[in-house]
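Colleagues,

For the teaching module next term, I've prepared a clean inverse folding example: a structure given as tokens, and then the sequence designed for it. I'd like students to try predicting residues themselves before seeing the answer, so please don't circulate the second half yet.
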């Protein structure tokens, strides 16, 4: 449970009837934007046009018509958690609520996010279980619903509070072992609950030929920084996990429960943080969005609406941000009802749209706006993935990329930075356009003998050893003059002295 809940200071407010709030909220929208001619009138339709899903957390007793009308994705708020469905030996029980939700989603043409397999909280009969038992549960749960689950949160909230960048020290993370004492859990000899759970989940998905994608989900990981500009160490730690386990992880969820805790505010670098995860080749989702109305300076909804707009825009501006889910329908039925953080007021199937709803709809209707480049340039990871220092509060020295080659007048250039460990490596290649824009690129490099590429992201690949060729995928071929894009690959063996050769076209 979030520790900030215990320390919250609430601003006293004069209570206003819902109807007044609604009128005031609506007035804001009318002033700020006239609806576009072809604007969609539901969140799901507007989101679909922009190429993303817009979802909601739901429970079986709240499956009102609005769920299928406004939303195109459903996350069981509680009904797929281990305390509901797991037995102590990793079997399944009490799945009827989850079944109801999955069926409802299916008949309303909604995606489902399974939530969640491995979590220290709401663990029920799994509390204290071994990795073997967790693996049994992972197999049973994934196989029960198969490809009807589009995304599974395999690991939830693995990282500690208070921006330490460390893992939690509660079960199941007490099972982690750092065999060589180097301060991380990424080495082959280490025991890592996250890695082992993802490996198991991936095996199950592959064995069943499922289309289900496997996600890691956490909170306070939203921006590159937290309040005051301090680096978001929790986000950096999550980034390292995804980078190291990229072959097992398909998607990253930012819970996005924004409140007035210094580590969970909305920062201007949210988009850049989404982008750096996207650059690893994973899908990014905003999975549990609610925005405390306190963040609106007690202005009865208008500031909250603008905050919603910011979050939706940040996602829309990154092509691989493929979905946003709000954590409930209405304020009064929310897990944090006092924060009035959702898009509707009302209850029991009778809901009224808030200013925040209109802002989200309006922003979705504007679309992805791909001609506008992100406001923040691509970010170089602040922490290398393989060998964090023994003291995690001290940032390790950054890996030194080779000096950039001078960009040619036209065409492109490429640089590579390498993170290596005994027996393996991850390479990040930056492709930079010359003085003219390019509409496609390919990069060739020659690996030393014994080195083999095992997977790549943000690029098509041909070859796996010797001379290997990479080329752009659909969304990163066009690079403006002087701008860059990144792709990456992972391999076994030793990769040194890589000299990438870039050609445009
Ligand atoms: C919350 C539910 O909304 C509540 O009904 C329940 O009592 C506690 O859990 N992070 C998560 C969600 O991943 O599962 C949590 O959901 C909210 C925080």
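(Answer key — instructors only)
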């Amino acid at each position: 449970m979030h520790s900030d809940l215990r320390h919250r200071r609430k601003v006293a407010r004069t209570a206003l009837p819902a109807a007044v709030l609604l009128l005031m909220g609506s007035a804001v929208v009318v002033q700020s934007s006239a609806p576009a001619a072809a604007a969609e009138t539901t969140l799901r339709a507007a989101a679909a046009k922009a190429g993303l899903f817009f979802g909601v957390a739901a429970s079986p007793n709240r499956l009102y018509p609005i769920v299928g009308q406004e939303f195109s994705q459903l996350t069981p708020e509680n009904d797929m958690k281990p305390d509901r469905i797991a037995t102590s030996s990793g079997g399944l029980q009490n799945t009827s609520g989850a079944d109801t939700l999955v069926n409802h989603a299916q008949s309303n043409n909604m995606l489902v996010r399974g939530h969640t397999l491995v979590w220290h909280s709401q663990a029920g009969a799994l509390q204290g279980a071994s990795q073997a038992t967790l693996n049994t549960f992972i197999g049973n749960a994934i196989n029960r619903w198969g490809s009807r689950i589009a995304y599974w949160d395999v690991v939830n909230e693995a990282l500690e509070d208070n921006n330490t960048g460390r893992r939690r020290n509660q079960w199941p993370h007490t099972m982690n072992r750092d065999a060589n004492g180097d301060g991380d859990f990424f080495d082959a000899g280490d025991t890592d609950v996250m890695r082992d759970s993802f490996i198991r989940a991936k095996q199950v998905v592959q064995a069943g030929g499922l289309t289900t994608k496997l996600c890691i989900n956490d909170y306070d990981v939203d921006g590159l920084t937290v309040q005051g500009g301090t680096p978001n160490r929790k986000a950096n730690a999550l980034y390292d996990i995804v980078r190291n386990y990229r072959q097992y992880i398909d998607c990253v969820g930012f819970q996005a429960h924004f409140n007035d805790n210094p580590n969970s505010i909305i920062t201007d670098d949210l988009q850049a943080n989404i982008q750096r995860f996207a650059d690893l080749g994973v899908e990014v989702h905003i999975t549990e969005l609610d925005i405390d109305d306190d963040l609106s300076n007690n202005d009865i909804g208008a500031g909250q609406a603008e905050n919603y707009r910011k979050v939706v825009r940040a996602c829309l501006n990154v092509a691989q941000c493929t979905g946003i889910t709000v954590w409930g329908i209405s304020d009064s039925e929310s897990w944090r009802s006092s924060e009035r953080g959702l898009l509707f007021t009302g209850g029991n199937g009778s809901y009224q749209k808030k200013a925040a709803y209109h802002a989200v709809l309006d922003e979705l209707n504007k679309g992805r706006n791909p001609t506008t480049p992100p406001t923040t340039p691509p970010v170089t990871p602040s922490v290398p993935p393989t060998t964090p220092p023994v003291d995690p509060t001290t940032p390790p020295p950054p890996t030194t990329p080779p000096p950039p080659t001078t960009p040619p007048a036209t065409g492109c250039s490429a640089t590579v930075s390498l993170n290596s460990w005994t027996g393996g490596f991850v390479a990040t290649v930056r492709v930079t356009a010359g003085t003219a824009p390019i509409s496609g690129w390919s990069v060739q490099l020659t690996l030393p003998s014994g080195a083999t590429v095992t997977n790549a992201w943000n690029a098509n690949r041909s070859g796996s050893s010797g001379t290997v060729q990479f080329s752009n995928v659909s969304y990163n071929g066009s690079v403006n003059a002087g701008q860059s894009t990144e792709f990456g690959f992972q391999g076994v063996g030793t990769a040194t002295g890589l000299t990438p050769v870039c050609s445009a076209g």
